[in-house]
Amino acid sequence: MEETTFAVLGTGGIGRRMLEVSRHKEGLTPVAACDRHGTTIDFDGLDVDELLAATEGNIDSEVATDGGAATADGEGVKQHGEDRGVVASEQARPSDDPIQDVIDHGEGIDAVLLALPNYEHDFIPRVADRFLEGGYAGVMVDVLKRSRVIGMLDDREGAFEEAGITFVCGAGATPGLLTGAAALAAQSFVEIESVEIRWGVGLESGYEDNRGTVREDIAHLPDYDIETARELSADEIEAIVDDHDGVIEFEDMEHADDVLLERAGVCDAEDVTVGGLLDVRSDEKPTTTTVTVTGTTFDGEQGTNTFQLDDATSMAANVNGPALGYLRAGVRRNRAGEYGVVGPAELMPRF
Amino acid sequence: MEETTFAVLGTGGIGRRMLEVSRHKEGLTPVAACDRHGTTIDFDGLDVDELLAATEGNIDSEVATDGGAATADGEGVKQHGEDRGVVASEQARPSDDPIQDVIDHGEGIDAVLLALPNYEHDFIPRVADRFLEGGYAGVMVDVLKRSRVIGMLDDREGAFEEAGITFVCGAGATPGLLTGAAALAAQSFVEIESVEIRWGVGLESGYEDNRGTVREDIAHLPDYDIETARELSADEIEAIVDDHDGVIEFEDMEHADDVLLERAGVCDAEDVTVGGLLDVRSDEKPTTTTVTVTGTTFDGEQGTNTFQLDDATSMAANVNGPALGYLRAGVRRNRAGEYGVVGPAELMPRF
After folding, report:
1. What is the mean pLDDT of residues A16-34?
2. Which of A265, B2, B268, B281 has the fewest beta carbons under 10 Å from its own?
3. B297 contacts in A (CB within 8 Å)?
4. Phi, psi dihedral angles at B292 (to 5 degrees)
5. Which domains, from first to last, does chain A contain?
């Protein structure tokens, strides 16, 4: 397979680590990165070391709006003199519309990784609209978790097909890695009874870098939704964390794992349950991330196959490797002329 | 993805179960099957029920030679009057060269599943040669395990590319399913230290149907090789089984898992070890089939991810589902114009 070039939209925790992990992958070249403050584009490949050093601590937890220019003061955004966010890198320049910069250079970009916050659940779909309007043809990848976003992307299926866009949704640890594992584990069976995905995340040292993720997780709690979670101040989030003694349990999450496994023909969405334990005060995982797939074999036996991630593997490690892998699988599909919306489990061998 | 048609060469244990499991898969139509005695071809789809009923117990453990007509008496081949093997089915007719029959109808066959014995380790490559000579363009899939066969297929890479053949090798439980799992489990890491594949098979009730597999496994024991194993009489095999009290342990097997994981860029072949326990006197697995992948994350942590198959899943269940899945993934590649030799882990998202 040929060389793959990619852009990262967003240089927060996820975006920066995507760049870092891509250095370990052969044939995968980051050529563009942006945040709300500016853009860096270099088709010879970005200088990832310089960019990471310059943007260290560049975690912008303010609520994003339309993917255009900054609309509010960023809390926690690193500043070098006048320069904010990615512009602190000497490769980057300020921009009034960083996303448009990337779209304008889309011809040399095989794939675009959306590492943007998603407090408004239509934010990613609206960014996709901008790429559609801008005439981009290629792969777009998000690492989202919420089922309803998939539906919004599905509404654009025809537009993606016409444009030549292959949109890979939910390509991170979950749904990404874990639905991939479920699709694989399902291969012993001709009938699936249940897929249970239970994750554990210990986030003490990564807490500062992942406040956006924690905010999104809070939106999954029974008393909250995306709208109320985005209204929360940092103090209110701290209060919620305190109320739970730092360990928040999630049951029956509205995670896209269910619809993505159904799309891939693995099982019915209603047979999938997702839950997890988040500990923001320890780096130890409060529970081992486990996928269990129970089904019946062709010869009538019931069994349960399991996939487990070691507690020593961070959420970051389990997001970034898979996302880049699915990105490449998406590029292969795109080059073969297969466009539209596709989930990670559909990129597995179609069992 | 469009409808996929496939042929099965060989109607022993593996071939018959492929047909059976394919009934549970949408969009996958068996259109041809053959053994050394005859052929059945129907582009409307075979009547699998009739074929399975007619060929029940149709396990031919004699040593195959050139894929052409029968050369020796088949022991254990079911006979209905004059008809032997697949010819016992009313859909089939006797043939002097069943493989040629399939090749002659190759235009309507997207993929050919090679469920043939492989006592001579160049048998599958020689069958591939026949498809090359016959001008077949499409997918060929084997469920072999031995590293050296991959090398022989690699020698034909140029010929496959010219012919438009995508050859998927080792698509069964192992290497197939388990190297796929290893490729997935490796995603948390940027550097892999070791992949350990340890399988357990309990084969009491399946022993009769899997004598070919047992013979092949014996060839992996320190005192045997493919040549000496094929010389063994049924009594000699029984004596070996007795010597081990029915449970044979295999260490450092010459399994293609290593070369196939290296091909897929997951790790070096030398970091892969394969071993297992075969119990022919119990259906209980003597050990749980487990894949453990140990590596280092991008953030410097060492961890081990694991994939386990429930003891209740039979070898047959773990061979046939994955093989049909990889077959479809192969067809997708083939339709995209990607030809040559490919291993199961390469059909996973290219992480």
Report:
1. 94
2. B2
3. 312-314, 317
4. -120, 130
5. 4-173+317-347 (3.40.50.720), 176-313 (no CATH)
B336: closest chain A residue by CA? A336
Neighbour count for residue B299 (Cβ, 10 Å)? 17
Q: Mean pLDDT in each 10-residue stretch from start to end of chain B (351 residues)?
A: 90 91 93 95 96 76 38 41 77 94 97 85 91 98 86 95 97 94 96 96 77 82 86 89 91 88 94 93 92 96 97 92 95 95 92 60
Contacts of B180 in chain A (CB under 8 A): 184, 349
Q: pLDDT tens across A223-256, in order?
A: 888 788 888 988 898 899 899 999 999 888 878 8
Residues of B in contact with A189 (CB under 8 A): 313, 317, 321
**β-pair partners for A340:** A166
Q: Is the pLDDT of residue A62 over 50?
A: no
What does the alpha-carbon distance between residue B259 and residue B167 come to, in Å, rounded to a whole number? 15
Quickly list DSSP for A244-306.
Answer: TTTEEEE-S--BTHHHHHHHTTSS-GGGEEEEEEEETT-SS-SS--EEEEEEE-TTS-EEEEE
In chain A, which residue's Cα lies nearest the Cα of B317?
A188
Q: Quote the tokens at residue A277.
A: 């334990």
Beta strand ranges found along B2-77 (DSSP E): 4-9, 28-35, 38-41
CA distance A129 to A53: 32
Written as one string, the DSSP assignment of A24-74 is TSTTEEEEEEEETTEEEE-TT---HHHHHHHTTT----SPP-SSSS--SPP
Enumerate residues 6+ apart whose C-beta is below 8 A from B36: B60, B64, B68, B69, B70, B74, B85, B98
Find the residue in A nearest to B351 (Cα). A325
Q: Please judge whether A322 and B351 are an interchain contact, meaning their C-beta atoms are less than 8 angstroms apart.
A: yes
Local structure of B98: helix, strand or coil: helix
For B191-213, give the DSSP string. Answer: EEEEEEEEEEEE-TTTTGGGHHH
* CB contact (8 A) between residue A307 and residue B306: yes
For residues B320 and B308, is the Cβ–Cβ distance under 8 A? Answer: no
**pTM for this entry:** 0.89
CA dihedral (B214, B215, B216, B221) in degrees, to 10, reads 90
Mean pLDDT of chain A: 88
> Residue A80: pLDDT band by 50, 70, 90 thresholds?
very low
pLDDT for residue B75: 41
Q: Smallest CA–CA separation between B276 and chain A, in Å?
A: 18
| Chain A neighbors of B328, CB-CB under 8 A | 349-351
Q: Point out the residue among A21, A301, A322 whose CB comes nearest to the CB of B313.
A: A301
pLDDT > 50? residue A73: no
Tokens 């099982």 locate to A267
Which of B37, B78, B121, B220 is flagged as catalytic? B220
**What pLDDT was estimated at residue A203?**
83
Q: Whole-angstrom Cα distance, residue A49 to residue A337?
A: 35
